[in-house]
Amino acid sequence: MTKAIRFHETGGADVLRFEDVEVGEPGAGQARVRHSFVAVNFADIYFRTGLYPLALPNGLGTDAVGVVEAVGPGVTDIRVGDRVGYLVGPPGAYSQVRVMPADVLIPLPDGITDRTAASLIMKGMTAQYLFRQVYPLKGGETILYHAAAGGVGLIACQWARAMGVTMIGTVSTDEKAEIAKAHGCTHTIVTSREDIAKRVREITDGKGVPVVYDSVGKDTLEASLDSLQLRGTFVSNGTSSGPVIFNTGRLATKGSIWFTRPAMRHYIEPRAHMLDMARELFDHVLAGRIVSEPKQSFALADAAEAHRALEGRQTIGSTVLVP
Q1: Going by C-beta distance under 8 Å and a sequence separation of 6 or more, which residues neighbour residue 162?
Q2: Do 2-119+293-322 and 123-264 agree at the fold level?
Q3: Predicted pLDDT of residue 35
Q4: Buried b / exposed e across 257-278, counting CB within 10 Å, b at 16+?
Q5: SS (H, E, C) 163-209
Q6: Which residue positions in the chain have pLDDT lower than 70?
Q7: What are the residue ranges spanned by the domains of the chain?
Q8: Which ranges carry the Enoyl reductase (ER) domain (predicted)?
Q9: 3-state secondary structure 259-283
């Protein structure tokens, strides 16, 4: 038996339970992983609340790092003792030990610790696919990025700086503005006291930006649309404040805006491509261009407390659970 966080109904953080679960031997194409760190992502809250549906009862989380304890028949590129991370697969990362499909496991290089990797796997790969695939940046652009002091945001700040991209980042407090700037964000907008679109137009001499990366959703929709250039691109990569709902005709009235709602799973296949994405991320980290460590940690049993902190915007950067 091992311990895991599970939930039997959707709702607030109090629905999360710390339970005994059975973990068997890995079958064909599978590996058993003992976790060292489990990442907390806002998508976990979407599953917990029912915004993203799951059959219940179920586990939670798709992002963790650890050591391979056993492999099943047919597994050739993952071995016992390998340090690995993963960001896709069935829910259940909020656990001490679990059996996983081996083809989603990403080997970790020697120069990156488990703790560092826990803040990188999902969040760093998210920055990679947003900046390098969804709207490929070439360098020299000025972009708007919402939630610049979040887990993905702090990595995005550094990635933008490494590419020579001028990043305008929104944050909720002056403290978060200083942290985003320290990580490479060129300009910050404190949303509690500044008009986002107005400041973007001031910074860009009235031009607006070619792309907005918006993980906030409902609360920033209007500002995002009003910050874009003619034929600009609105990347809706999250809905932490609520879903984005609007008449698509407004894309025309706002300047023939392109709109996309990407999902990670559509950008990491096949496995060889996922490993190339990870390699690009790890190269930046090993070269010192991206530095990332969890800013908050909670015991696995305290996952509900971690969720409350994340929902209450009380966190900076990434948050992990320690089994």
Answers
A1: 184, 284, 289, 290
A2: no
A3: 98
A4: bebeebebeebbeeeeebeebb
A5: HCCEEEEEECCHHHHHHHHHCCCCEEEECCCCCHHHHHHHHCCCCCE
A6: none
A7: 2-119+293-322, 123-264
A8: 11-321
A9: EECCCHHHCCCCHHHHHHHHHHHHH
What is the per-residue pLDDT across 226-275, written as a single tens digit (0 to 9) for each?
999 999 999 999 888 888 888 889 899 999 999 999 999 999 999 999 99
Name which of 155, 72, 77, 64 is nearest 117 in CA terms.
64
CATH code given to domain 2-119+293-322:
3.90.180.10
Question: Does the global pTM surpass 0.85?
Answer: yes
Paired tokens of 301: 């049993």
Residue with tokens 């070619």: 210
What pLDDT is attached to residue 116?
A: 96
What local confidence, expressed as pLDDT, does residue 58 receive? 97
Taking alpha carbons only, the member of 284, 310, 281 closest to residue 297 is: 310
What integer pLDDT is reported at residue 259 of this predicted model? Answer: 96
CATH 3.40.50.10090 fits 123-264, yes or no: no
Q: How many helices (H) and strands (E) does the chain have?
A: 10, 16
CA torsion, ordered 303, 308, 312, 316, to nearest 10 deg: -20
Hey, what long-range contacts does 257-263 have (CB within 8 A, 24 or more apart)? 257/225, 257/228, 257/231, 257/232, 257/233, 258/231, 258/232, 258/233, 258/234, 259/233, 259/234, 260/134, 260/135, 260/233, 260/234, 260/235, 260/236, 261/236, 261/237, 262/129, 262/130, 262/134, 262/235, 262/237
Helix (H) or strand (E) holding 227: helix 221-227
